[in-house]
Predict the 3D structure of the following.
Amino acid sequence: MSVYEKFIQNERLRRFFVLAIVIFILFLARSMITMILLTFIFTFLALHFVKFVQRYLKIPSLILVLATYSLIVFLVYLAITKYVPVLIHQSVQMYNSVIHFYQTPTDDHNQLLVVIDNYLEKSNLMSQIQNGASILLRYVQDIGSIGLSFILSFILSFFFMIEKKQMADFSKLFLKSDFDWFFQDIYFFADKFVNTFGVVMEAQFFIAVVNTGITTICLALIGFHQLPSLAIMIFILSLIPVAGVIISCIPLSFIAYSEGGINDVIYILVVIIVVHLFESYVLNPKFMSSKTDLPIFYTFVILLISERLFGVWGLIVGIPIFTFFLDILKVKPIHSVSVTEKSSVPPPE
């Protein structure tokens, strides 16, 4: 038996080799990682939505896909023309509220505020905010490239959905080629990753929606005015497991102090604590822990490392990637969920 045949028969070594190649290719394509992830997320959500609708309505996939993507385009156009200007105006007001917090003199009769004010002056925080604003401006200047990635990902996802059957038929050819073992292992890892991503992101998306709803209602009762901007910020941060809720209390506390003083800050902290406890002890055990069962310490470490490796995307995909490796290494298998159509590319015979 030749070395090549021994290598093919050694499934563990062979799959490790294939996974290393995939990781290396993704590393070389790291400049396109935003478009790759957006395409994957759009396609994943579209497949999930189409399959969900077809459980109750016998609508052909092509008609459903065309209607869904047309509706998305219309909603994006509506948002750009009507709601984005309002959102920008409210975001500017929110930024001005934070600046007003630092520029407004504190009450000399409140010793706690005097101590905080002295600390802020010594730490030269205003210059740090200005530096942060310049960094933010550079990010805004890159909005063109981000928008292009968004558009291309949306188009690629659309083409994948309308040619789903052709994609499946064409993909079968790779599983029966001379190097079928290579593509069968790629299929194995792709199936594992999609399943893992679906389990984690579906649970985290639901948690984010619940957190955003509860927090926004509480902010409305307290008397906050920039609710659309705050709701979007809270939802995006809530997609970050565990840490997102805690991070959101920083800007919310600044805005609360500028609008209502220290009493509103206390209200905000109470709301964040209640929402965090609700997420940690009700939502996570029900929707996340039963599938990943990651301790909070592991969660924070994964977020720190993934942010270093993948940037902002790491905060969102870090947990799915880690649970993917847990499943691959058979440390903790992830329970299967029906979020993709398993018949798209049949398993190798």
Observations:
- Confidence is low (pLDDT under 50) at residues 337-346.
- The CA atoms of residues 124 and 168 lie 59 Å apart.
- The chain has one domain: 3-104+138-329.
- Residues 3-104+138-329 form one domain.
